[in-house]
Amino acid sequence: MYKSYTMELCGRTLRVDIGRMAAQANGAALMHYGDTVVLSTATASDKPREGIDFFPLSVEYEEKLYAVGKIPGGFIKREGKPSENAILASRAIDRPMRPLFPDDYRNDVTIDNLVLCVDQDCSPELTAMLGSSIATCISDIPFNGPVAATMVGMVDGELVFNPTSAQREKSDLALTVASTRDKVIMIEAGANEIQEDKMIEAIYAAHEINKKIIEFIDKIVAECGKPKHEYERFKVPDEMYEDMVNFITPEAMEEAVFTDEKQVREENIKAIVEKLTERYETDHPDWVPFINDAVYKFQKKTVRKMILKDKKRPDGRKLDEMRKLSAEIDILPRTHGSGMFTRGQTQVLTVTTLGALAETQRLDGIDENETVKRYMHHYNFPSYSVGETKPSRGPGRREIGHGALAEKALVPVLPSEEEFPYAIRTVSEVLESNGSTSQASVCASTLSLMAAGVPIKAMVAGISVGLVTGETDDDYVLLTDIQGLEDFFGDMDFKVAGTHKGITAIQMDIKIHGLTREIVEKAIYRAREARIHIIDEVMAPVISKPRPEVGPYSPKIIQIKIDPAKIGDVVGQRGKTINAIIEQTGVKIDITDDGAVSICGQDKDSIDRAAQMIQTIVSDFEEGKIYEGKVISIKEFGAFLEFAPGKEGLLHISKMSKQRVRHVEDILTLGDRVKVVCLGPDKMGRVSFSMKDL
């Protein structure tokens, strides 16, 4: 049955059509926000997937270029693999929804969002987040929703909600907050050094809007929702778990996990699994498939008890204590910049590469405001970083997400194109991993950029704060600088990056049904204390400010301005003039529509020569000014000189010498470079040059 529901959301109409499309999915919602249209569907398999110990959820966000009236570029005129923006949108939808499915649900679930039409003032990503929640809530798939999301910007110091395209362009904040009925469940932010109190204000202003959206979703579910289906639960047998605990003992499990060496802990757990396998293979073969899950459950209970009740961390640190920190620069002798940051058993090396502005990344997507990226941050997580063997198949969604988070953290402190006319790429190589590599890559990238001579405005550092909760909202413990085990068995990974002045990026992942305001506030301020310590005590002693100039192996770039009307003179017919300059000097030249000319090369003399050629081309000849030209043609009446590609003039035979010249060849030959003085226009209006009056 077709039903339609509407609400006013931040000054625009949100319309949800149920029963209009995709009737065979478990749940489907056709979402309209302004003129943005997204079809959101939720589908589940009939039976659980065998042989897995996790919930197989897949979230898709499909960008179709027809949504913005474009035909895909290239030879294959159809969309290919998801763009980075689509992957990041999928992750943003996944994170708040995943904790709301049952822990023991093993049926495959796919949440798909098909972007059909885009109004640039109404975010398709936000529309898809709301559509995913509604489609899942009205389906028969077990789900403890709804969840709602709101985007927040800040223009001229004022908060704006679900900002328009024009507002996003000048906003100092790009915040997305997802909430359940009572609590915040996901935070994603990029910010221009926003102070903590303002960030908290923005988060909870969005939370209030989310509550109203949830009331709207509740009405839809009440009228259109299907009964939730029963499912086959995957549960460790109580008798087996009790036998295992008595056999291994809590004291032995605590001893196994209580170490600051990840490899030692893994060996200890491996030995426990082997003992249990040997014990059950004969007497209880039906228990063997549950061994890994039972040991995981035992570990989790042990670690959480140690932290929550005993206030002990597995590696012996205090609750607010960071692991051993170190920073280095100039690891690699010939790269443009390199920096390495180590935090316990987490180690990241970041390498900076500088290039001409022509090397900026061009984007072909549905966001018409973002077509190029001048700064690119890439993150790689090889298997050896965790002591595993696995072939490299390129970056996955996690790597793309972590790279984007670090990029978001650093963009606010980068110099403008006018200040530093380079394309910039940083690549973070994770060399060792035991928790919070994304924030280590923020620190390593700051070091690398400064070592490369990039004049960043402030140093940026990042840290992750963890959480272990008890039975009540006020029974919890916050952990500064979580390692892998605390992330694995804990309830939260709250990543915050920023400068002394304020926050530049946040990403919050949780495994529970939301956080109280007290936890959010304390985590944000705990992260501030940690990052200030990292900047002042660890990074600044290594390099306190960016180097004053780029290194010897970096390209050198200067930028000059010309009259936009003269761009055609510099380019020449079919690029003949500019290509001649490039061929003669070996530089790279980029010209923008406003007349900004960037000249890039390894040799400063070549760059200066190219700049002089361009200035000569765009300048009119001045009487009394001395020029140097190359003889390119000889006639009976004189010689033609080339002062720059495409810029020529005539030196008449009568102006070559104070003595009478019978033949031009007596004075000049092809290829000679000669200095001449401009005499101004002659009687016929032509510009005249002279050697004899020099």
UniProtKB/TrEMBL annotation:
Residues 624-692 form the S1 motif domain. It is found in: Cytoplasm. PROSITE patterns: KH_TYPE_1, S1. One of its GO terms (cellular component) is cytosol. Keywords: Cytoplasm, Magnesium, Metal-binding, Nucleotidyltransferase, RNA-binding, Transferase. Pfam families: KH_1, PNPase, RNase_PH, RNase_PH_C, S1. The keyword Nucleotidyltransferase applies. It is an enzyme of class 2 (transferase). Mg(2+) binds at residues 487, 493. Its main location: cytoplasm. Belongs to the polyribonucleotide nucleotidyltransferase family. NCBIfam families: polynuc_phos, PRK11824.1. This is Polyribonucleotide nucleotidyltransferase.
